[in-house]
Amino acid sequence: MHESCGVFGIYSPDEDVARLTFFGLFALQHRGQESAGIATANGKKIGIYTGMGRVSSVFSEDSLSRLTGHIAIGHNRYSTSGSSRAANAQPIIVGNGDGTIAIAHNGNIVNAGYLQKELLDSGYAFHSGTDTEVIANLILSSPEKDLVSKIQYAMRRLQGAYSLVLITSRELYAVRDPFGVRPLCMGKLDGGQVIASETCALDHIGADSIEEIRPGEIVRIDENGVEKHSVKSERSALCIFEYIYFARPDSLINGRLLYPVRQAMGAGLAREHRVAADLVMGVPDSATAAGMGYALESGIPMAEGLIKNRYVGRTFIEPDQRIRDLGVKLKFNPLPQLLDGKRLVVVDDSIVRGTTTPSVVKILKKAGAKKVHMRICAPPIKYPCFFGVDMATRRELIASQKTIPEICSFIGADSLGYLSIEGLIKSVGAPRDTFCLACFTGDYPIPVQLEMDKLALEHNNDEEHPGEQDDKPSNGIDDEPCEGIEDA
């Protein structure tokens, strides 16, 4: 399973906002590694710089120094709508004159295809394959006069998940969809305001007075301070995987630090699926806290049986067959002298397609483990996600095709236990009806098309304007940043 995106925003007349946005994105790097970008505004114009890769490789001292102003937004991308290419990097700039905005988005719009066709028919042009550009053009297409009303108009028509940061030349906006599927929070920094996907990013730059932006809420920040507006929210449907896997363990959601929440998941697994064993280990790094929880609850000693190479990232160098056959051994290396002859409980966050877990089990047994008992924090994932997580199609989800005993046999484990939905909700400590559990139950908070193409918007644009889509970024962004768009 791959993360959703990370967004960041800041309004502060007294700070180097581009540099602070860089460090905010650095703290949110786990949410997306395909591309990164920053847009800034100084009251007259918007400047932007985007690139492919991680934050540290996209930006330099020179590029940051050219992003001037007192307002900024930033984005880390993992593609859930649109392919991984420079044209789809965010933030994006849309509009002209006083109607110019820069926008960045975490989530996925399930009716984006319909809205894009409607906007194309109305004469709006698209330069990317992302639903973010659909959101931006939908906002600009509103007949309302002020931007808050335009955003409210768009929110009434959008279906899906979206946590947005948006700037004009003079203002910063933060927007969270009425279901609150993706997290979004706000803090104060030396007289300014900061927005981020997770509280850890606010901690990293020294922000305080942190609060969550509520589902359906629009926050407008300018020289006069903070204004809050909202649209009607029927219910909360926060993605439960923010607790299980996506968010960093040092982040807070609904006021709860995630590290002890994940420990509680491991303790729940120990109560539901106890087994005789010599050592407990969590698959690093996402299940380390849950492994500790299992060990504490069961009384079985904790061990670090796999060492993770934390510098493994995306590479454009194709491995030869020998390296390819090593599989996850490039990412994990076992400790044979510690594992030899031991019965292991191995705690992991989830099993999605079932492609990685068999390799982990094989590595541990080859290192001498006598038994490998897999314990999984997420209940069986039987349905795909359409709200900003690039998970898999239903036919690719192993739990939708096999029973638990069949999965156990497939991955080569000696036993397999999943945390129940009830056990998961108890660990999280919030009412069940405040979460989206659709990947476990098939009960989506809004109706969705059960098979969706992440490249559908690019196909729509190709049909409307054949030959116009290429790998050049929109708004003149290439190897050099856009120098800024002058407001009329």
Describe the protein's topology.
Elements lengths: L5 E6 L5 H11 L7 E7 L3 E8 L2 H4 L2 H5 L5 E7 L14 E3 L6 E9 L2 H10 L9 H11 L5 H11 L2 E8 L4 E5 L8 E5 L2 E5 L2 H6 L3 E5 L4 E6 L2 E6 L7 E2 L1 H6 L5 E2 L2 E2 H15 L6 E4 L5 H11 L7 E3 L12 H6 L5 E3 L1 H4 L3 E6 L8 H10 L4 E6 L21 H4 L2 H8 L3 E4 L2 H8 L6 E2 L1 H4 L14 H9 L17 E5 L2
Parallel strand pairs: 14-23, 17-20, 20-21, 21-22
Antiparallel strand pairs: 1-4, 1-10, 2-3, 2-4, 3-24, 5-6, 6-7, 7-8, 8-12, 9-10, 9-11, 12-13, 15-16, 18-19
Helix pairs in contact: 4-5, 4-18, 5-6, 9-10, 9-16
Features:
single chain; 488 residues; alpha+beta; Glutamine Phosphoribosylpyrophosphate, subunit 1, domain 1; Rossmann fold; 2 domains; six-stranded antiparallel sheet; 24 strands; disordered C terminus
Summarize the structure in words.
Helix content is 29%, strand content 24%. The protein is α+β, with helices and mostly antiparallel strands. The chain folds into two domains: 6-237 and 468-486, Glutamine Phosphoribosylpyrophosphate, subunit 1, domain 1 (4-Layer Sandwich); 259-430, Rossmann fold (3-Layer(aba) Sandwich), CATH 3.40.50.2020. It has an eight-stranded antiparallel beta sheet with strand order 11-9-10-1-4-2-3-24. A six-stranded antiparallel beta sheet has the order 5-6-7-8-12-13. It has a four-stranded parallel beta sheet with strand order 17-20-21-22, with helices on both faces. Strand 12 and strand 13 form a beta hairpin. The longest helix has 15 residues, at 258-272. The protein is globular and about 70 Å long.
